[in-house]
Protein backbone atom coordinates (compact mmCIF):
# COMPACT_ATOMS: atom_id res chain seq x y z
CA UNK A 1 0.00 0.00 0.00
CA UNK A 2 1.23 3.49 -0.64
CA UNK A 3 0.18 7.09 -0.69
CA UNK A 4 1.64 10.22 -2.25
CA UNK A 5 2.95 13.35 -0.63
CA UNK A 6 3.34 16.12 -3.14
CA UNK A 7 5.83 18.92 -2.98
CA UNK A 8 7.80 21.41 -5.02
CA UNK A 9 9.74 20.01 -7.97
CA UNK A 10 9.24 16.43 -7.02
CA UNK A 11 6.82 13.91 -5.76
CA UNK A 12 7.93 12.01 -2.72
CA UNK A 13 6.27 8.90 -1.65
CA UNK A 14 5.16 8.13 1.86
CA UNK A 15 5.41 4.44 2.30
CA UNK A 16 3.59 2.20 4.61
CA UNK A 17 5.08 -1.19 5.22
CA UNK A 18 5.15 -3.20 2.03
CA UNK A 19 7.56 -5.57 0.39
CA UNK A 20 8.14 -3.21 -2.52
CA UNK A 21 8.52 -0.13 -0.34
CA UNK A 22 12.24 0.38 -0.79
CA UNK A 23 12.02 -0.11 -4.54
CA UNK A 24 9.25 2.43 -4.85
CA UNK A 25 11.09 4.94 -2.70
CA UNK A 26 14.19 4.62 -4.85
CA UNK A 27 12.08 4.81 -7.97
CA UNK A 28 10.44 8.06 -6.99
CA UNK A 29 13.73 9.60 -5.86
CA UNK A 30 15.37 8.61 -9.10
CA UNK A 31 12.68 9.60 -11.51
CA UNK A 32 11.19 12.76 -10.04
CA UNK A 33 7.90 11.26 -11.08
CA UNK A 34 4.85 13.22 -12.11
CA UNK A 35 4.26 16.90 -12.72
CA UNK A 36 6.90 19.37 -11.80
CA UNK A 37 5.31 21.90 -9.58
CA UNK A 38 3.62 22.18 -6.24
CA UNK A 39 0.39 20.29 -6.22
CA UNK A 40 -2.70 20.98 -4.24
CA UNK A 41 -4.61 18.37 -2.38
CA UNK A 42 -7.62 17.23 -4.31
CA UNK A 43 -10.76 15.55 -3.06
CA UNK A 44 -11.04 11.85 -3.50
CA UNK A 45 -12.37 10.35 -6.72
CA UNK A 46 -15.92 9.22 -6.75
CA UNK A 47 -17.26 6.57 -9.05
CA UNK A 48 -19.34 7.61 -12.03
CA UNK A 49 -19.40 11.23 -11.01
CA UNK A 50 -18.71 14.60 -12.54
CA UNK A 51 -15.33 16.15 -12.23
CA UNK A 52 -14.62 16.46 -8.55
CA UNK A 53 -11.96 19.15 -8.52
CA UNK A 54 -13.42 21.63 -10.95
CA UNK A 55 -16.37 23.94 -10.78
CA UNK A 56 -17.03 23.42 -14.47
CA UNK A 57 -18.16 20.37 -16.40
CA UNK A 58 -15.55 20.56 -19.13
CA UNK A 59 -13.93 17.31 -18.03
CA UNK A 60 -16.06 14.41 -16.81
CA UNK A 61 -14.57 11.55 -14.87
CA UNK A 62 -15.91 8.20 -13.87
CA UNK A 63 -13.97 5.49 -12.10
CA UNK A 64 -14.63 1.82 -11.71
CA UNK A 65 -13.61 1.20 -8.12
CA UNK A 66 -13.12 -2.53 -8.63
CA UNK A 67 -10.71 -2.36 -11.54
CA UNK A 68 -9.20 1.04 -10.74
CA UNK A 69 -9.85 2.21 -14.32
CA UNK A 70 -10.91 5.85 -14.70
CA UNK A 71 -12.45 7.28 -17.85
CA UNK A 72 -11.78 10.95 -18.49
CA UNK A 73 -14.18 12.51 -20.99
CA UNK A 74 -13.40 15.85 -22.54
CA UNK A 75 -16.58 17.89 -22.64
CA UNK A 76 -15.95 21.29 -24.16
CA UNK A 77 -18.41 21.64 -27.07
CA UNK A 78 -18.40 21.97 -29.96
CA UNK A 79 -14.92 20.52 -30.61
CA UNK A 80 -13.13 20.11 -27.25
CA UNK A 81 -10.68 22.85 -28.10
CA UNK A 82 -8.08 23.33 -25.40
CA UNK A 83 -8.65 26.72 -23.83
CA UNK A 84 -7.10 27.77 -20.51
CA UNK A 85 -9.97 26.35 -18.46
CA UNK A 86 -9.73 22.97 -20.23
CA UNK A 87 -5.99 22.76 -19.69
CA UNK A 88 -6.39 23.52 -15.99
CA UNK A 89 -9.22 20.99 -15.59
CA UNK A 90 -7.33 18.27 -17.45
CA UNK A 91 -4.22 18.81 -15.37
CA UNK A 92 -6.19 18.80 -12.11
CA UNK A 93 -7.92 15.65 -13.16
CA UNK A 94 -4.71 13.82 -14.16
CA UNK A 95 -3.04 14.83 -10.93
CA UNK A 96 -6.01 13.83 -8.87
CA UNK A 97 -6.10 10.39 -10.43
CA UNK A 98 -2.33 10.13 -10.01
CA UNK A 99 -2.77 10.71 -6.29
CA UNK A 100 -5.65 8.31 -5.94
CA UNK A 101 -3.98 5.14 -4.76
CA UNK A 102 -6.85 2.97 -5.96
CA UNK A 103 -6.54 4.27 -9.53
CA UNK A 104 -4.39 2.19 -11.90
CA UNK A 105 -5.33 3.40 -15.36
CA UNK A 106 -7.01 6.20 -17.22
CA UNK A 107 -8.77 6.24 -20.55
CA UNK A 108 -8.89 9.65 -22.22
CA UNK A 109 -11.76 10.19 -24.63
CA UNK A 110 -14.34 12.70 -25.87
CA UNK A 111 -17.83 13.07 -24.53
CA UNK A 112 -18.87 14.09 -28.03
CA UNK A 113 -18.12 11.38 -30.59
CA UNK A 114 -16.64 12.44 -33.97
CA UNK A 115 -14.28 15.00 -32.43
CA UNK A 116 -11.74 13.77 -29.90
CA UNK A 117 -10.08 17.19 -29.58
CA UNK A 118 -9.57 20.04 -32.07
CA UNK A 119 -6.30 21.06 -30.47
CA UNK A 120 -5.46 24.35 -28.86
CA UNK A 121 -8.24 26.89 -28.86
CA UNK A 122 -6.95 29.16 -31.59
CA UNK A 123 -8.77 32.12 -30.07
CA UNK A 124 -6.47 31.82 -27.03
CA UNK A 125 -3.50 32.80 -29.17
CA UNK A 126 -5.19 35.32 -31.45
CA UNK A 127 -4.66 39.00 -30.62
CA UNK A 128 -3.81 38.25 -27.02
CA UNK A 129 -1.11 39.96 -24.94
CA UNK A 130 2.34 38.34 -24.69
CA UNK A 131 1.74 37.71 -20.97
CA UNK A 132 -1.55 35.99 -21.68
CA UNK A 133 -0.09 33.60 -24.26
CA UNK A 134 2.86 32.90 -21.97
CA UNK A 135 0.50 31.85 -19.17
CA UNK A 136 -1.57 29.83 -21.60
CA UNK A 137 1.51 27.96 -22.81
CA UNK A 138 2.61 27.16 -19.27
CA UNK A 139 -0.79 25.61 -18.64
CA UNK A 140 -0.26 23.38 -21.67
CA UNK A 141 3.23 22.40 -20.50
CA UNK A 142 1.94 21.53 -17.01
CA UNK A 143 -0.97 19.52 -18.35
CA UNK A 144 1.38 17.60 -20.66
CA UNK A 145 3.90 16.93 -17.87
CA UNK A 146 1.14 15.45 -15.72
CA UNK A 147 -0.12 13.13 -18.46
CA UNK A 148 3.16 12.12 -20.08
CA UNK A 149 4.76 11.59 -16.66
CA UNK A 150 1.90 9.61 -15.20
CA UNK A 151 2.49 6.35 -13.30
CA UNK A 152 -0.91 5.14 -14.57
CA UNK A 153 -1.63 3.14 -17.68
CA UNK A 154 -2.84 5.90 -19.99
CA UNK A 155 -4.90 5.06 -23.03
CA UNK A 156 -6.28 7.43 -25.67
CA UNK A 157 -9.69 6.32 -26.95
CA UNK A 158 -9.70 8.60 -29.98
CA UNK A 159 -13.35 8.65 -30.95
CA UNK A 160 -13.06 11.29 -33.68
CA UNK A 161 -10.80 13.92 -35.21
CA UNK A 162 -7.56 14.54 -33.37
CA UNK A 163 -5.54 17.35 -34.98
CA UNK A 164 -2.61 19.23 -33.41
CA UNK A 165 -3.20 19.51 -29.66
CA UNK A 166 -5.55 16.52 -29.93
CA UNK A 167 -2.67 14.51 -31.35
CA UNK A 168 -0.42 15.90 -28.59
CA UNK A 169 -2.79 14.47 -25.97
CA UNK A 170 -2.88 11.11 -27.72
CA UNK A 171 0.90 10.98 -28.06
CA UNK A 172 1.28 11.60 -24.33
CA UNK A 173 -0.63 8.39 -23.61
CA UNK A 174 0.81 4.87 -23.57
CA UNK A 175 -1.48 3.43 -26.23
CA UNK A 176 -3.87 4.82 -28.85
CA UNK A 177 -7.10 3.32 -30.17
CA UNK A 178 -8.75 5.33 -32.92
CA UNK A 179 -12.15 5.26 -34.59
CA UNK A 180 -12.19 3.80 -38.09
CA UNK A 181 -13.42 5.96 -40.93
CA UNK A 182 -12.94 9.47 -42.16
CA UNK A 183 -11.37 10.89 -39.03
CA UNK A 184 -7.95 12.50 -39.06
CA UNK A 185 -5.02 12.82 -36.69
CA UNK A 186 -1.66 14.56 -36.93
CA UNK A 187 0.44 17.57 -36.04
CA UNK A 188 -0.71 20.19 -38.53
CA UNK A 189 0.91 23.16 -36.75
CA UNK A 190 2.90 24.32 -39.78
CA UNK A 191 -0.37 24.83 -41.65
CA UNK A 192 -1.10 27.60 -39.12
CA UNK A 193 2.45 28.97 -39.44
CA UNK A 194 3.26 27.50 -36.01
CA UNK A 195 6.18 25.28 -35.06
CA UNK A 196 5.59 22.35 -32.73
CA UNK A 197 7.82 22.61 -29.62
CA UNK A 198 10.77 20.24 -29.12
CA UNK A 199 8.97 18.04 -26.59
CA UNK A 200 6.02 17.50 -28.91
CA UNK A 201 8.27 16.85 -31.91
CA UNK A 202 10.23 14.33 -29.83
CA UNK A 203 7.12 12.36 -28.86
CA UNK A 204 6.19 12.15 -32.54
CA UNK A 205 9.70 10.86 -33.38
CA UNK A 206 9.51 8.38 -30.50
CA UNK A 207 6.19 7.03 -31.73
CA UNK A 208 6.56 6.90 -35.53
CA UNK A 209 10.32 7.19 -36.10
CA UNK A 210 12.56 9.98 -37.32
CA UNK A 211 11.93 10.01 -41.07
CA UNK A 212 8.14 9.81 -40.92
CA UNK A 213 7.96 12.32 -38.05
CA UNK A 214 10.22 14.81 -39.77
CA UNK A 215 8.15 14.67 -42.94
CA UNK A 216 4.80 14.74 -41.11
CA UNK A 217 5.86 17.73 -39.03
CA UNK A 218 7.27 19.71 -41.94
CA UNK A 219 4.16 19.41 -44.07
CA UNK A 220 1.74 19.53 -41.13
CA UNK A 221 0.17 16.26 -42.24
CA UNK A 222 -3.20 15.08 -41.04
CA UNK A 223 -3.62 11.35 -41.58
CA UNK A 224 -6.73 9.23 -41.86
CA UNK A 225 -7.20 6.50 -39.26
CA UNK A 226 -5.96 3.83 -41.68
CA UNK A 227 -2.81 5.72 -42.58
CA UNK A 228 -2.22 6.56 -38.91
CA UNK A 229 -2.38 2.85 -38.09
CA UNK A 230 0.01 2.05 -40.92
CA UNK A 231 2.49 4.65 -39.60
CA UNK A 232 2.16 3.48 -36.00
CA UNK A 233 0.73 6.85 -34.96
CA UNK A 234 -2.15 4.86 -33.48
CA UNK A 235 -1.96 1.28 -32.28
CA UNK A 236 -5.39 -0.08 -33.08
CA UNK A 237 -8.60 0.86 -34.93
CA UNK A 238 -12.16 0.11 -33.89
CA UNK A 239 -15.63 1.12 -35.08
CA UNK A 240 -16.43 4.43 -33.44
CA UNK A 241 -19.13 2.93 -31.22
CA UNK A 242 -16.66 0.30 -29.93
CA UNK A 243 -13.65 2.52 -29.23
CA UNK A 244 -14.38 2.77 -25.51
CA UNK A 245 -15.02 -0.96 -25.06
CA UNK A 246 -11.89 -1.88 -26.97
CA UNK A 247 -9.92 0.60 -24.84
CA UNK A 248 -11.27 -0.99 -21.65
CA UNK A 249 -10.31 -4.47 -22.88
CA UNK A 250 -6.84 -3.25 -23.80
CA UNK A 251 -6.35 -1.57 -20.42
CA UNK A 252 -7.32 -4.79 -18.67
CA UNK A 253 -4.54 -6.58 -20.58
CA UNK A 254 -2.05 -3.92 -19.55
CA UNK A 255 -3.15 -4.25 -15.93
CA UNK A 256 -2.06 -7.89 -15.94
CA UNK A 257 1.50 -6.53 -15.84
CA UNK A 258 2.62 -5.61 -12.30
CA UNK A 259 2.18 -1.84 -11.86
CA UNK A 260 5.58 -1.24 -10.36
CA UNK A 261 7.67 -2.84 -13.09
CA UNK A 262 5.53 -1.28 -15.80
CA UNK A 263 5.68 2.22 -14.31
CA UNK A 264 9.43 2.09 -13.66
CA UNK A 265 10.04 0.96 -17.23
CA UNK A 266 7.84 3.74 -18.57
CA UNK A 267 9.61 6.37 -16.51
CA UNK A 268 13.03 5.09 -17.52
CA UNK A 269 12.20 5.90 -21.13
CA UNK A 270 10.29 9.15 -20.51
CA UNK A 271 12.50 10.76 -17.87
CA UNK A 272 14.97 12.42 -20.28
CA UNK A 273 12.22 14.30 -22.13
CA UNK A 274 10.35 15.19 -18.93
CA UNK A 275 13.56 16.54 -17.42
CA UNK A 276 14.43 18.43 -20.57
CA UNK A 277 11.12 20.27 -20.58
CA UNK A 278 11.36 21.00 -16.85
CA UNK A 279 14.82 22.43 -17.42
CA UNK A 280 13.88 24.47 -20.48
CA UNK A 281 10.38 25.49 -19.42
CA UNK A 282 10.99 29.24 -19.39
CA UNK A 283 12.88 29.19 -22.66
CA UNK A 284 10.04 27.20 -24.25
CA UNK A 285 7.46 29.69 -22.94
CA UNK A 286 9.48 32.58 -24.32
CA UNK A 287 9.75 30.95 -27.74
CA UNK A 288 6.01 30.36 -27.87
CA UNK A 289 5.20 33.88 -26.70
CA UNK A 290 7.58 35.53 -29.19
CA UNK A 291 6.53 33.32 -32.11
CA UNK A 292 2.77 33.46 -31.68
CA UNK A 293 2.62 37.20 -31.11
CA UNK A 294 4.63 37.95 -34.28
CA UNK A 295 2.45 39.93 -36.69
CA UNK A 296 2.99 37.55 -39.61
CA UNK A 297 1.89 34.60 -37.44
CA UNK A 298 -1.14 36.53 -36.22
CA UNK A 299 -2.16 37.13 -39.82
CA UNK A 300 -1.78 33.41 -40.61
CA UNK A 301 -3.88 32.53 -37.57
CA UNK A 302 -6.54 35.01 -38.65
CA UNK A 303 -6.63 33.49 -42.14
CA UNK A 304 -6.85 30.00 -40.68
CA UNK A 305 -9.73 31.05 -38.43
CA UNK A 306 -11.55 32.58 -41.41
CA UNK A 307 -11.05 29.37 -43.37
CA UNK A 308 -12.47 27.34 -40.48
CA UNK A 309 -15.54 29.58 -40.16
CA UNK A 310 -16.17 29.55 -43.90
CA UNK A 311 -16.06 25.75 -44.09
C1 LIG B 1 5.87 28.33 -31.25
C2 LIG B 1 4.49 27.90 -31.57
C3 LIG B 1 4.22 26.53 -31.09
C4 LIG B 1 2.82 26.09 -31.40
C5 LIG B 1 2.62 24.65 -31.16
C6 LIG B 1 1.26 24.38 -30.79
C7 LIG B 1 0.87 22.97 -30.59
C8 LIG B 1 -0.56 22.81 -30.82
C9 LIG B 1 -1.20 23.65 -31.68
C10 LIG B 1 -2.66 23.57 -31.94
O1 LIG B 1 -3.37 22.72 -31.44
S1 LIG B 1 -3.32 24.74 -32.98
C11 LIG B 1 -4.99 24.21 -33.30
C12 LIG B 1 -5.01 23.39 -34.50
N1 LIG B 1 -6.31 22.81 -34.70
C13 LIG B 1 -6.82 22.64 -35.90
O2 LIG B 1 -6.22 22.95 -36.90
C14 LIG B 1 -8.20 22.02 -35.96
C15 LIG B 1 -9.19 22.97 -36.50
N2 LIG B 1 -10.53 22.40 -36.49
C16 LIG B 1 -10.95 21.50 -37.39
O3 LIG B 1 -10.25 21.07 -38.28
C17 LIG B 1 -12.39 21.06 -37.27
O4 LIG B 1 -13.06 21.97 -36.44
C18 LIG B 1 -12.57 19.62 -36.71
C19 LIG B 1 -11.79 19.42 -35.42
C20 LIG B 1 -12.11 18.61 -37.76
C21 LIG B 1 -14.08 19.39 -36.41
O5 LIG B 1 -14.84 19.67 -37.55
P1 LIG B 1 -16.40 19.95 -37.39
O6 LIG B 1 -16.96 20.06 -38.77
O7 LIG B 1 -17.03 18.96 -36.48
O8 LIG B 1 -16.51 21.34 -36.62
P2 LIG B 1 -16.29 22.80 -37.23
O9 LIG B 1 -17.56 23.27 -37.86
O10 LIG B 1 -15.07 22.87 -38.04
O11 LIG B 1 -16.00 23.63 -35.89
C22 LIG B 1 -17.05 24.02 -35.01
C23 LIG B 1 -16.70 25.37 -34.43
O12 LIG B 1 -15.51 25.25 -33.68
C24 LIG B 1 -14.52 26.18 -34.16
N3 LIG B 1 -13.19 25.56 -33.99
C25 LIG B 1 -12.76 24.43 -34.53
N4 LIG B 1 -11.52 24.15 -34.13
C26 LIG B 1 -11.13 25.15 -33.33
C27 LIG B 1 -9.93 25.44 -32.60
N5 LIG B 1 -8.87 24.63 -32.61
N6 LIG B 1 -9.91 26.55 -31.87
C28 LIG B 1 -10.97 27.38 -31.82
N7 LIG B 1 -12.13 27.18 -32.50
C29 LIG B 1 -12.21 26.07 -33.24
C30 LIG B 1 -14.92 26.39 -35.62
O13 LIG B 1 -14.38 27.58 -36.08
C31 LIG B 1 -16.41 26.39 -35.52
O14 LIG B 1 -16.80 27.66 -35.01
P3 LIG B 1 -18.17 28.34 -35.47
O15 LIG B 1 -18.07 28.53 -36.95
O16 LIG B 1 -19.24 27.37 -35.06
O17 LIG B 1 -18.21 29.63 -34.73
TrEMBL record:
<dbReference type="InterPro" id="IPR018376">
    <property type="entry name" value="Enoyl-CoA_hyd/isom_CS"/>
</dbReference>
<keyword id="KW-0413">Isomerase</keyword>
<comment type="pathway">
    <text>Lipid metabolism; fatty acid beta-oxidation.</text>
</comment>
<protein>
    <recommendedName>
        <fullName>Enoyl-CoA delta isomerase 1, mitochondrial</fullName>
    </recommendedName>
</protein>
<keyword id="KW-0443">Lipid metabolism</keyword>
<comment type="function">
    <text>Key enzyme of fatty acid beta-oxidation. Able to isomerize both 3-cis (3Z) and 3-trans (3E) double bonds into the 2-trans (2E) form in a range of enoyl-CoA species, with a preference for (3Z)-enoyl-CoAs over (3E)-enoyl-CoAs. The catalytic efficiency of this enzyme is not affected by the fatty acyl chain length.</text>
</comment>
<dbReference type="GO" id="GO:0004165">
    <property type="term" value="F:delta(3)-delta(2)-enoyl-CoA isomerase activity"/>
</dbReference>
<keyword id="KW-0496">Mitochondrion</keyword>
<comment type="subunit">
    <text>Homotrimer.</text>
</comment>
<comment type="similarity">
    <text>Belongs to the enoyl-CoA hydratase/isomerase family.</text>
</comment>
<dbReference type="InterPro" id="IPR001753">
    <property type="entry name" value="Enoyl-CoA_hydra/iso"/>
</dbReference>
<dbReference type="GO" id="GO:0006635">
    <property type="term" value="P:fatty acid beta-oxidation"/>
</dbReference>
<keyword id="KW-0809">Transit peptide</keyword>
<dbReference type="InterPro" id="IPR029045">
    <property type="entry name" value="ClpP/crotonase-like_dom_sf"/>
</dbReference>
<dbReference type="Pfam" id="PF00378">
    <property type="entry name" value="ECH_1"/>
</dbReference>
<keyword id="KW-0276">Fatty acid metabolism</keyword>
<dbReference type="GO" id="GO:0005759">
    <property type="term" value="C:mitochondrial matrix"/>
</dbReference>
<keyword id="KW-0007">Acetylation</keyword>
